[in-house]
Amino acid sequence: MFSFHASGLSVIMAVLFSFTEEFQPRNLLSSFLAGWVTGIIGVIRGISYAALIFSGSLGEYLNLGVGIAVYSTAAISIIVALMSSLPGMIATPLAAPTAVLAVLAAAIAQQMQNDPPEVMLLTVMAAIALGSLCTGLFLFLLGICQLGKVISIIPYPVVGGFMAGTGWLLVRGGVQVTCEHPLTWQELPSLLEWSVLSHWGAGFLLALLLLGLTQRYRHYLIMPGTLISAIAIFYLTLFLTHTPLDLARIQGWLLGPFPTGGLWHPLTFSQLPAIHWSLLGQQWGTVATLMFISLVSLVLTNSGIELAVEREIDLNQELQAVGMANIAAGLGGGMAGNQALPSTILVHKMSAAHRLAGVFKTIPCATVLILGAHFLEFFPKPILGGLLFYLGLDLLLQWVYQAAFKFPFWDYAIILLVLIVINTVGFLQGVLVGIALCLLLFVIEYSRVNIIYPVCSVSSSASPQGESWLGLDPSLANHLYYLPLQGFIFFATANQLLDRVQHEVMAVQPHPLRFILLDFQQVTGIDSSTVLNLSKIKKIAANHQIFLGFIGVDDRVQRLLVRGQVLEENNSRIKHFSRVESALIWCRGQLISGG
């Protein structure tokens, strides 16, 4: 009984401590600023997504589409912010699922062109809501069934290509937002004209300034301070040049104008009989595609966020959080979405990794739904474009430039190919091409492995055939975890290695774990996904003050570990040994000396 009360009390204290930390003035201010910045970005993205779906014969209902998109942004954001395993997680409708919804809406509009417009609109709105409900239920059930580990087996180069592709799409979006010209070869002459160049060039210069300042300084006020200063300079320039706001808007320096009229009008029970349900049943394939793309996008985005913020994320909890968020969005007639990689990175770079950031993000959304979108018409386009440029360039710098020095040739080639396919064909096609090439590369690598296991003597006390040798020295065995590895370790098996080490480190033991020894003497090769997981093991060991030893690593594997910054020359807590005996002697010495 006492333990039960103590456990419950500790949980309550942890929750209270978390909220106390959230409401500290420093955290509250950074969360508020990050929430407003990401909220405005979310609203603008929502408006652009609404314009994508409600186009053509649906164009006259764009104001309702804006309401759907903005409501979805708010509902998804607040639920994921409160339920996510990562404080500071930002969620919103995303480009890939929205593209599927645009196809779905266009197909329904095409089939119902002879029906009354009101009926067509209701059917489209029902299709959007149904897609969100199905997606939410699908993701939530995957999380409840603890299938996160199963669906997370995606090769590391595919994740890198996904992030690089996202970076380039953000750069293209920055150009589109600032000057309303697409970044294509055909438009290149127009983009270099001064009247156009001055628009996207201003945003690009702001992005370079943000990159330089955030790389050099880590203070949480750098990002919002730079943005506020940039807005002030913009309006000061208008004042000094005697440029009226209406003229600045006509010249394309300000957002808007946006559609007038009511925005959010969710479906009511009285409207349900007017919907063409049989027509919705014919679109089950498109709805299934929406569910699949949402799942792939969630897995890739979470992998990218893990790498960007260097934090472990519980994928099962994220599936449940996003599932509930999509169900809430669907019940309000909203569209599907999940975690947003750029906005989450932005929040963490603003030192606002708190749940309140996602909660505060809903304030601009609620303001737009209540007052309309007119207050956004005073937001300078170069500032918004500069943010998109900054996030895109930051990802490209990491996954195109820096990755060239860390990845093997073929893994890096896959990253570039996925980047190209995503930006020329689409997200899903890019991911599928990357996975196919990784599987092909694995088959080629594995075909070179000698499958005949070498016969070795078991008489040695350090035989890799088992762990019984540890019994010869109980004082050392109590503090040491030895893991013999064999064969080619690749993305599908690397997670097993990470899980084994995590389980051993987190297990309740009578003696503290002091040493982890990974025996590579029977390992024939590794891929970059294994390097990633070994990097995570290195961080786990460092966080728990555990010495990490690598035994018998050959030259080829060692080069990969050095390039991936797993093996470091000046790290005293990471050791490399040629044989098990050498590792044991060193561990005994450390145990005796108390090192």
Distance between the termini: 41 Å
What is the number of helices? 25
Proportion of beta-strand residues = 5-15%
> Based on helices, strands and strand pairing, what is the structural class?
mainly alpha
Please describe what this structure looks like.
By secondary structure, this protein is mainly alpha-helical. The protein contains 25 helices and 6 strands. The protein has helices at 2-22, 25-53, 62-83, 95-111, 117-144, 148-151, 156-179, 188-191, 194-216, 222-240, 245-250, 277-281, 284-309, 315-331, 341-349, 355-360, 362-371, 381-401, 409-424, 427-447, 474-477, 491-506, 528-543, 555-563, 580-593; strands spanning 91-92, 338-339, 480-489, 515-526, 547-551, 574-577. A 4-stranded parallel beta sheet has the order 3-4-5-6, with helices on both faces. Strands 1-2 form a two-stranded antiparallel sheet. Helix 24 (555-563) links the parallel strand 5 (547-551) and strand 6. Helix 5 packs antiparallel against helix 14 (315-331) and helix 7 (156-179) runs parallel beside helix 19. The protein is globular, with a radius of gyration of 27 Å. The chain starts with a helix and ends with a helix.
